Every structure is written in structure tokens, then in C-alpha cells.
Amino acid sequence: MDRWYWSQSCTESGECVHQKITGVRLYDGDQKTSFKDGTLYLTDRRIIWEQPDRTVFLALNLSLVILVEEEKGGFRSDPKIILHLATPTKSQSSGPIGRSNFTFIKLSFSNGGKDLFEKNLEKALQAKAWEKSLFTTQLQGQSLSTMPLRAGILGIERDIHSKQRETSSNISKAFEDLKNLMSLAKDMVTLSRNIANKIKEQTGEISSDETVQLRSYLLSLGVDDPVTKEAVGSTTEYHKKLAQEICNVLKSSVEEVGGVMLLSEVYCRINRARGLQLLSPEDVYNACSLMSNMHLPLRLFTFKSGVQVLQLSSLDEEEVSDNLRQFLEGCKEGGISPIEFSRSSGVPLLLAQERLYHAERCGITVRDESSEGLRFYPNLFFTRT
């Protein structure tokens, strides 16, 4: 309510009224106020609320409205319009509340008319008549002697000098950005040199701070020359080169997460590395489908449920199943849920569940579905044979 201010009358000179609605209540955020059953006026510049006895007028400048939302009415509540407002200027007149804890207000319509009011309000916000009136006022405030009637040669020279100053300023800003880029490259070279010297001299392990810093620099660089269809031409050749690029960028990341990564995460990571040269889901899938025939270090694998992952070509399924079986046998409770397995192994829940189901189809695990949820146990028949 600190955006509202007292008004002397309903409208001002030159102000055009678009709509008038009765039975409107004002809210300060989600809280009701004592301003109820009033008449609401929508003009080209303001929203005015008039008390039933016409003794109180509150005004709200449309220039403060940032976002308009609607709130549906219920069995015991009237439909409302929510207005998210900007901070008022210091020159604004005083209002009913000096300072409010909310940055939005609500208008409650008990006699209908909300939809039409919202439609007219959107039109008024798009027209921005208050900017035109402000520009007119500024022009009227200028004296005729200060308004140039003719530019002449002197005016043309001033325009040329002004454009030259603006161009020089833009060039200076561009060189400042170049200096920042050179500074970042210098820091990265120094960091990589220190890491290389430590590895060569074997004086100690690389600190975690240096590792994180180097990774952040590499991530910010992304792919320096991403593959594009325009450069390659052939669609098949494009997908082959794209498959090679995905392997080069994501091989280390797949190794860090245990050798398996969801295809959806692959899509997000490769697009983040490519920057503005974004890929479609179809291109990523087609490229990953070719990895197995190209004998690349990564390949596409599809679970029986349809979940697709990108995994290391060297990944041994039997070894993964044996590790899972040993993990289940080491559980104190004798079994584990997909959520517990996801937390302990550090893989997404969907992938953890698919691994357990896959192990069940291989005869390594059995599952128990009860009111307590889904749990997997080691297959004792399989281990004792």
C-alpha cells in the first residue's frame, strides 16, 4: 500500500478514463485493508480508488506496474487481480501507509468486471501514455531560446564530435574487455604451469583448490570449434564427427560418475560446452547411436524399460553385476531400496533403479514390493549354486 498516494480528485486534466467498476476492495499483499466497496477507475496513466462517500481518493501510477496476474475466485472468495509493483520514487506524494512489507497488491472484485478490467489494464500498460505526457511536459518547460531552430554547420560539427567521442568510448570499453580476457588467460597459463611442474617434480599432490579452479576455467572455455551441419554438409558425416566430439568432451565426465550417464544429462552437458551452437535431441541421439560401430570409447546402451544411457565401451557388465551383488551382501539389513542405492553409489535415482532391475533380470537380485516400498535383496539361489 506504500505505492498508493492520496489524490485530490478522481481524475486530472488530460487524463482519459477507460473503465469504472464498483465494489472493489484493496489488499496490501495478502492482507485485507479497510478500503472496501469502493469505485475503481482505470485511466491511461493511473488506477484510482474512490471511497463510497467520495471523500477519499487513492491513486496508483501505472508506471509502477511490473507484472499482472489473476487469482481465481472460490466458494467464499471473490476473483482478484494481483499487481506486482516497482519501488516508488522519492518524489511521490504520501499515501495511506508509509512503508509496506509487500511488493504487490490485490484488487478484489465483488460485483464482477475483473476480466474486462484486466484486458483494459494490459492495453493501458502497453500504450504507456504516461511517458508521452512526461515528454510533452518537458518540452513545454523549455524556453524557446534554448530550443535549436536550425542546426547549421556548427550543429553538424557538434554531431560529428559527439559521434567521435561515443566511438572512442566504445573502443575503450572493448579494450577493457580484451584486457580482462588476457588477464584470465594469464591466470590459467600460470595455474596450468604450476600443476605441470608439480606433476613433473612429483613434489606433492595437486591441491583441491587448484583442481577446482582449473576445471572452472576449462568449463568456461567449452568446445573451441564445435561441429556444425553447414561446415560438414553430409548428415551422416556430421553425426559421425558429432559422435567423436561428444566422446572427446564427455569421456572424462562419464568416467567420474562410474562409467554410465543418462542420455538427458549428456544432452545438457554437450550443449553447455558448445555455447551458442546448440544441438537438438535427435542429433545427440543419432550421434550416440553411431559410437558402437565407430569403436569409440563411449557407446549408447538402452535398458529394457527404455531408459537410455551413455556408458564406457570398456565397461564390463559382469563386473558391474558382481560389484552390485557384493554391495547387497554387505548391507546390514540384507536389502536396499533404489533411493538408498542412489545415495550410496552417487548415481541418479532413475539409473540406480534401472541397475537393480537389470541385476534382477540377470538373476543376481530379487525384489520385494510391500507397503513399506520396493527393496532388493541378493539372490541366494544364485550365490549357492
TrEMBL record:
An example Gene Ontology CC term for this record: ESCRT II complex
InterPro entries cross-referenced by the UniProt entry: GLUE_dom (IPR021648), PH-like_dom_sf (IPR011993), Snf8/Vps36 (IPR040608), Vps36 (IPR037855), WH-like_DNA-bd_sf (IPR036388), WH_DNA-bd_sf (IPR036390)
GO biological process, one term: protein transport to vacuole involved in ubiquitin-dependent protein catabolic process via the multivesicular body sorting pathway
GO MF, one example: phosphatidylinositol-3-phosphate binding
Residue stretches making up the GLUE N-terminal domain: 1-137
Predominant cellular place of this UniProt entry's protein: cytoplasm
Any one Pfam family match given in the protein's UniProt record, by short name: Vps36_ESCRT-II
Localisation: Cytoplasm; Endosome
Residues spanning the membrane: none
Keyword Cytoplasm: yes
Keyword terms, alphabetized: Cytoplasm, Endosome, Protein transport, Transport
Quaternary assembly: Component of the endosomal sorting complex required for transport II (ESCRT-II).
Family statement drawn from the similarity comment of this UniProt entry: Belongs to the VPS36 family.
Main function: Component of the ESCRT-II complex (endosomal sorting complex required for transport II), which is required for multivesicular body (MVB) formation and sorting of endosomal cargo proteins into MVBs.
Protein name: Vacuolar protein-sorting-associated protein 36
Source species: Armadillidium nasatum
